[in-house]
Every structure is written in C-alpha cells, then in structure tokens.
Write a structure and sequence with these properties.
homodimer; alpha/beta; seven-stranded mixed beta sheet; two-stranded antiparallel ribbon; 9 strands; elongated
C-alpha cells in the first residue's frame, strides 16, 4: 500500500489554491506565500507547507512562479494515470456518484455501476453503463478497475467486497455503514453519511 | 458552538458496538471490555475509552450490563431531540440524501429539499417534499430547521449559504467543493466526495 505524501487536509486545500492561482494568473507571473495566505485568510506556515508538499519552495523575494505552481498542483491531483472505478449498488447514491462530474480533475474515471436488480444493461442520465452483476468481473478485467465503490445496504456489503477483491481492485470506498474484512494491502475508506451529519449535529 | 464530547472516530464506532451488543443481548446480561475488544478485533484501551465516553465504566469482574450499555449508546446517538434538516439543491445527490434512511438512528430528520429549478411542490420517491426556493424561509421557520445541507454547484453555494443563515439554521453541511464565509458560531462541515475518492486513489 502506497502512502499518500500529503495529508487529506492538504489535498483538500490544493484545489482552493488552484482556483485562486487561476484568478491571479493573468495579473502576475509570481506570487508570494504571504500574499496567498493573506488573501485566502490562511496561516502562512500552512500555505508554505501545503505548497511545499507538491512543489519546490518559493524563491526569496519573488515567491512562486504562478504557472509552475499551478502545473505542480494539477499534476499532483491528477496523478500519473487515470484510475478506473466501478460502483456496486445502483441505488440513488450509486447513481449520483456515477454521474458526478467532480472526479475528473483528480484523475479518476467512474466507469460503470452494477446492481443485482439490473437484468439488462442500462444507461445513466449521463450515458454511463449500469450493468448486471454478472458483468462485473469481465468489466473490471477489461477496464483494469483500480477502485470499487460499495453503495449497497450494509447486509450485502461484505459479499460485494469479496467479489470486488476477486476482481482485483486495489482499494475499496465503502458507503455501507459496516466494517469490512479485507486482505491486507487493500485499503478501504469508509464514508458514513449519517455519521458525518450526526457529528455536525453534535456541534450545533 | 457546542463541542461534541466524543471524537468522530469514536462516534463512528458506537453503532458498531450497538450492533454487536444487540447480537449478545439474548445470550448474556453482562459483557467485559476484554470480550468486546477481542471479538471486534479492536484494542481494549480503545474499547474502554469509547464506551466510557457515553456510559459509566464497566464493573470489575462483571463488566458492562448489556442492556444499560445499549441504552446509553442509543441515547447518545439520538440526542435529546430530533434535529430537522433541509437540503438546498435537489439534484441527484440532494435527492439521494433526502431519501437516505440512515439518519433516523442519529436523531436527525431530513425534512425537505429545495431547488431553484422546482416551480411547483414535488414529492421524492419516498414521499418527502421537494419545494421551490421561495418556500425555504417559511419551511425553516415552521419546522425549526437546525441544519442546512448544501448540494448545489460550487458557484451557487455561498448565496445558498447566506439564505440558510438568514433562515437561522445552526449548522451547514456543504457538499459543494468551495469554502464558505459564515458568521462565527455557525459550524460548517465540508463533504468533498471527489477529494475523498482522490485521497483513497493516492493510497492504492
């Protein structure tokens, strides 16, 4: 299992820097960490650390070259090659993720969804395939699927997980509120919507 | 702003304990942290700490009374009163969250969704109202909405946030990949789907 070299918090701020730099690009060649920090209302130490994790340090006096910095951030976010992703569970959430347009900038292509209730191939609103479970193995092989997303009910999640592991996905993103058993070396990331909202609810 | 007295990680494990205890309830009256830790393959220190944050400590020799422990966990998760929640942005994700059934056990009721493109009241698949934006203020007042969920595109998120703040929500859950300006004292929690998947992608 590769370890990401930047924290999730830093990764979350990278698109913020990128958007900010895009606005500045036409107005200047260089920008200092001090300016970025002030205008984005962030700590300067944090800005230097975040940017330093994907790019070289800014030059004394001139700061960062905006074009180079943008390229470094984009390259980091996109990675070396696009990861193909499959979804198992084509309910409302599965279909929402299938058609979500925000993954591309991170070098991720959500290629298809699969569901036990789908008997004949369908298309999502955005034209992505929604296929019977019997197609999963072939599809994963042909598309070299790297990640499997689980959006089935908790009771079905382990079985789906086992199938995805057999299909040789290298990571699992699980929306079912359960704990999965996986072979060592396959990272799993849980996304518990109810828990996230419940946590916010405890803060209000 | 209230601070939650348990961490998000602990909160995430509470339903796991609860499910486990439900299975044990008919078989025994008491259970030790040692047994729980072993059977759930978790560290004993963590189990004691987690359970201690919502319940008293287990008794020496006998451990926890299963029924009492379940009640303590359920009460903590549910809170004192149900929080009413509104969603702004009735696209695929907004509708998926509107009809998601997992919030109830956390004392949360997602009451309605609102969207600029909705001109006449609609119903979701599960019968929840999807209403025009012009209804937001009245609805929030009548239902004493505590949390607003933002599932509109990033460009529209700040405007929606401002409207929700005017409607006196006490917290914001934001799925738009942006950073919101909010008055102090209103917690905002960001949920960036693309970022979460991108983070997993960096680990495989």
């Amino acid at each position: 299992m590769k370890q990401p070299d930047v924290s999730k918090a830093t990764m979350g701020r990278l698109p913020v820097y990128l958007k900010y730099l895009k606005e500045k690009e036409s107005k200047a060649d260089n920008i200092s960490a001090t300016t970025i920090a002030r205008e984005l209302r962030m700590g300067e130490v944090r800005v230097r650390k975040d940017l330093g994790s994907v790019s070289g340090a800014g030059r004394p006096k001139t700061g960062y070259n905006i074009g180079e910095l943008m390229l470094a951030i984009e390259n980091y976010l996109r990675g070396e090659k696009t990861t193909e992703v499959v979804i198992v569970g084509a309910g409302k959430l599965g279909r929402a993720l299938l058609d979500y347009s925000g993954f591309g900038e991170y070098g991720i292509n959500v290629a298809a969804a699969f569901d036990v209730s789908v008997k004949l191939p369908e298309k999502s609103q955005n034209g992505k395939p929604i296929l019977p479970m019997s197609e999963l193995s072939r599809f994963c092989r042909e598309h070299d699927a790297g990640i499997g997303i689980i959006t089935v009910p908790a009771a079905a999640a382990q079985k789906v997980c086992d199938e995805l592991v057999k299909c040789r996905v290298k990571g699992i993103w699980c929306f079912a509120p359960t704990v999965l058993n996986l072979p060592a070396g396959i990272p799993v990331q849980y996304e518990n919507m109810a828990l996230s909202l419940a946590y916010l609810n405890k803060k209000i």
